[in-house]
Each structure stands twice: as structure tokens, then as C-alpha cells.
Amino acid sequence: MKKLVLLFLFLFIPVYVSAADLPDIQINIRDYHGIIIPEGTFIPVMNTQEISTQTCSEGYKVKFVATNDLYLHDTNIVPKDTEFYGYIEKINAPVVGTNAAMKIRISKMVYSDRVEIPLRGYLYSSNNNVFGGGISEPVKYKAIAQRQQSVKKTTLQMRPYLGRKMGTHTVIPAGANEIIVLTAPAWITHTLTD
Question: Mean pLDDT over all residues of the chain?
Fold first, then answer.
């Protein structure tokens, strides 16, 4: 019973410590409310490895590095050398008449102090963010005579003939400068300070 009473006293009797007994620790806290990078923002990046439809498969992880600082309201929100990670979302193999194509999704960015920020974006191309997928070369060309009225001459024009060749694989070489386009706003709660 004495042990129980002593335990009760130690647990519920407040211990008072004076401010003079505490160490003087100052934490530098800044007033920061976060920044939203709007949807449709372009971020210039560089490819760190070769990405090919021949050697890579869907789900293959890719990495890009920011080539410039990106500022928003006088704040450097994407410093140079920030890493961007993603994966190949879709691959279409080459077929007769069409080259191979791929679509690369970006899922996060990582600052140099290893803080990760989730993103929704794609590696940008003018073909709805799909790389490759164009028409392959013709099998043969046929010369067709064409009369020019202004100079009164006939010239030969080469036109595709007898269908198309087998398509080729699409490659994004290492070191290629590309652009990431955000498809949803990104909430940035961390920026690097000097």
C-alpha cells in the first residue's frame, strides 16, 4: 500500500522548474504559409538516362533534373538541380506505318535536402504529351510529272508509293532538355533558404 501511495505522489504532484534552470535555446521559425504552383506550369528539366521504347517497359522509373531556378512571387520554389521522378505510363510498340510512342508521368520532386513534394505532371510534347507515334517512312517513292504554268516546264515530284515501312523505336537521349507540364496544382510547403 505504501508503494502505491508513493507512486501516486510521484505521478500526480507537479514538479516546478524555474526558467533559470532551462537552457536558452532559440529556434528560428519563419512565417510561411505555403505556395501553390498553378496547373499548366512548365518546368525546364534535363533527362539523366536514355529512355527508349525498345529497352524500357511500362512502369520503368525515370529521373530528370531542373536546369533553371523557377520563381513565383520572388520565391525560388524549384531551385536548379531539383530532381523529378516519374515512370513510363504507356508504351505503344512500333507497327507497320506507325513509329513507337510513349507517355511519361511525373509523380514527385525532391529538393537537394531530400524533402519530397508530390506532383501530377507529364513530360511535355506537342502531341498530347506523347513522344513518338508519327508515320513511318514510305516503302518507295514514285516520280510524278507536274506541269508548272508560270515557267512552262514539267518537273518531277516524288510521292510516297506502295505503303509504309515498319515503324522505328522512339528514344529520348540522356542529357536531352525537356519540359515538365503540371496537370494539377502543386502545394509547396517547403523551399530551400540560404
Answer: 83
